[in-house]
Design brief:
The chain contains 2 helices and 4 strands. By secondary structure, the protein is an alpha+beta fold. The protein has one domain: Alpha-Beta Plaits. A 4-stranded antiparallel β-sheet has the order 2-3-1-4. A hairpin with an 8-residue loop joins β2 and β3.
Length: about 100
């Protein structure tokens, strides 16, 4: 299994707008995606009010590639959120059970 950690930092002043997208669009989308075993969304804390994250557990690299394409190492975002995000990162790990 593959653990995929996706993190974003919103643009200043876009925290509320991104939060709405995160809760109403991104979380339901990821929870309903074929190949995802578990989704752990992370909302900002007081000391990092612009940072959001997802930890996703995928059943296989093939499932992940079926969702994002062969360029799975790039942090893809929905076009509707592009203007809200200043910075994004993506990391992948083999899940240790």
């Amino acid at each position: 299994m593959i653990m995929r950690i996706f993190q974003v930092i919103t643009r200043h002043g876009k925290e509320e707008e991104f939060s709405k997208f995160f809760h109403e669009t991104a979380i339901p989308l990821m929870k309903g995606t074929k190949g995802i075993v578990q989704v752990l969304p992370g909302a900002p804390r007081a000391d990092s009010p612009r940072e959001f994250s997802f930890v996703m557990i995928w059943d296989s690299l093939e499932s992940l590639k079926a969702f994002v394409g062969d360029d799975y190492k790039s942090p893809h975002i929905d076009p509707s959120e592009a203007e809200l995000v200043e910075f994004r990162t993506i990391k992948h790990y083999d899940l240790v059970e």
